[in-house]
Amino acid sequence: MLGLIPAALYSAAPANAASAAGFTAADQFGVFSAGSPTAHVGDLTVVLGSSTTITAVTAHLVASGTSDDALDPVLTETGSAPYGSSETQSTWSVPSAITESELPLGVYAISVDVTFADQTTQSGQDIGTLDFLNQPQLTLTADHTDVGYDYSPTINLTGTAAILAPDGTTTPYTDGALALTTDFGAGQTLTTDASGDFTAQLSTQTGGWVDVTLAAASGQAGGTATVALTQVIDPVKLSAKLSAGTIRYGSGAGETVTGTLSYLPEDQGTAYKPLAGQPVTIGNPDSSDPGTVIASGTTNAEGDFSITLSAAVVAASGTWTVSAGRSAGDNLFGPAVTTLMVTVDIPTVITNFHVTLSQYWELSFSGCLNQPQDSPNGRITPAAYVAFQYASSPNGPWRTLVKNVPQSGMTCGKGGVLYAGTAEAPVNYAYYRLSYPGAKPYVGQAYLGSASTPTLAWKYADRVIGLSVSPDVVGGNGRLTVKGQLQYYADYKWHDYANQTMYIIFRQKGSGTWYWIVKAKTNSSGHFSATLDDSVGSATWSAEFEGNSTHLATAPPGVYVRVRG
Predict the structure, then answer these.
(1) Is the pLDDT of residue 182 over 80?
(2) Domain 135-231 shares a fold with domain 347-458
(3) Candidates 1.20.950, 1.10.8, 1.10.3470, 2.60.40; CATH matching 347-458
(4) What is the mean pLDDT of residues 168-196?
(5) What is the sign of the dihedral through the CA atoms of 40, 42, 43 and 44?
(6) Confidence at residue 9, expressed as pLDDT on a 0 to 100 scale
């Protein structure tokens, strides 16, 4: 058989060829079609178009791969009709069907000799191919073509296979196997019986088509019969909830997601039914791979499910997706996704806390607010408020010394922030710590409060008692004497502090700055004394101990001395 080919123009003189729009030039023709009907391949017919009357057509059939004519049938005009404004479409056919006794089965190239009314002939114009072959006749039916959850998965197929000869006679096909293929599973090989009948059975709830194919062979064309399947997708309804809306990271084992899955059978109103034995998956769209399943379960006979989360899964915080039906990979049902908002409390730690107390009562401290090594990746919010606190014992009560410790601008630990500062010591002996109150939930995570390990910082407290300055009124460049006693506190009492340097200091009237003028040494009882000329005018006088690596500095309030004149 020859399929339709585009209309083409043929001429012995190409320079005079007509345009594709028509056949206006004399002695030219075009081919509308050439071939035979499938039901009777021996009936060769050619449909031509021309502006000059065609009086004779002879066909030449040349076997594929040869150059010799196998058959040269003379065609008879069987009809004509106007075509366009000045052309004619004429139909030419063999007087009687070509038989196998005239032409062996095979594939042949077709060419024609066309004679016009003026006796001009166009010879040997190729117009296509004739498949002069036995034609398979296949039928295929199924006991049902709807597939889905509510349909029997077993499909029973029946069919017939026959061979149509060129002369129009049909015989059952019993010479070989048929191939059954589908778009949803492995193929099968089918065998026909003596009548050309065959049967097959498939098991499926999904799919789009089933094919039975008779392969081409020598002298025989190939053929296929198809049954189209209709996939019925039932909608599903999914509900889910989390046993706790807030979970502490690292302690999430035992947390569960529970819910129910139901479906709406086709053509059964609006009543949903429980859906048993179906997968339900949980994912985290906030992760680097949102398609990853982090937990899964299966519905029971009532359509209920309960999925226990591991501690590792709980680390996937934020918006969790619960999926079923097509969303969980089951193509029998429509998609179903619901979301659960989960807040995971992320623990924090304050590490590398250091505090030192100088002899001048100045505290220097620093610490790293960060996350434990096993907590999820992240960064403590830069807006975190960290307080510097003190207490008389490591168990508190704690009092805030610096409410908002400044950040150092340096990172530390696991995505942490380094805080550092200074403060004046409230007492000589105290425990200190950095304290973080925690942060409100943000994008599924909330940082928990933490505090550093209490650290003791202390030095001996010192005092000057019995300070005296005499006289309290002197003349210009008059002499005055400064006396006192230095002591330190230990073992719940005051002790004399011997052999220490005391600075005799003064602050002139109207000034806020102290100056030292002379040094004095404490004796074995901690007493000191210094006599000097008053050359500074009226001023307040005192004595200061600078402290050392174990003792704090101290200076009592001064004594005012007036200079006469």
Answers:
(1) yes
(2) yes
(3) 2.60.40
(4) 92
(5) positive
(6) 31
Cβ distance 209 to 124 under 8 Å?
Answer: no
- pLDDT on residue 330: 85
- Which residue reads 């190239």 in tokens? 109
526, 485 Cβ separation under 8 angstroms: yes
135-231 CATH pick, 2.60.40.10, 3.50.50.60, 3.40.50.1580, 3.30.1960.10: 2.60.40.10
> Up-side HSE of residue 71: CA atoms within 13 Å toward CB?
22
3-class secondary structure, 138? strand
Contact between 219 and 106 under an 8 Å Cβ cutoff? The reply is: yes
The dihedral formed by the CA atoms of 420, 421, 426 and 431, expressed in degrees to the nearest 10: 10
Query: CA-CA distance, 486 to 495, in Å (whole number)?
Result: 9
pLDDT computed for residue 144 by the predictor? 95
pLDDT band at 3 (very low <50, low <70, confident <90, very high): very low
Alpha carbon distance 158, 193 (integer Å): 12
Q: What is the mean pLDDT of residues 179-191?
A: 93
Q: What percent of the chain has pLDDT over 90?
A: 63
CATH code of the domain occupying 9-132: 2.60.40
Digit-coded pLDDT (tens) for 50-78: 989 999 999 999 998 888 899 999 999 99
Distance CA 316, CA 287 (A): 7
Token pair belonging to 438: 């925690």
State whether the Cα torsion 517-519-525-529 is positive or negative. Answer: negative
Give residue 453's pLDDT band: very low, low, confident or very high (50, 70, 90): very high
Give the domain ranges of the chain: 9-132, 135-231, 236-343, 347-458, 462-563
Cβ atoms within 10 Å of 215's Cβ, excluding its own: 14
Per-residue pLDDT, 314:
61
**Where does 462-563 sit in CATH, by number?**
2.60.40.10
- Tracing tokens 């005391």 back to the chain, one arrives at 502
Q: Which of 137, 107, 122, 116 is nearest to 36 (CA)?
A: 107
pLDDT band at 16 (very low <50, low <70, confident <90, very high): very low
Report helix, strand or coil for 558.
coil
- DSSP structural state of residue 270: T
Bridge partners of 58? 74, 113
Q: Predicted confidence band at 354 (pLDDT cuts at 50, 70, 90)?
A: very high
Three-state secondary-structure class, residue 327:
helix
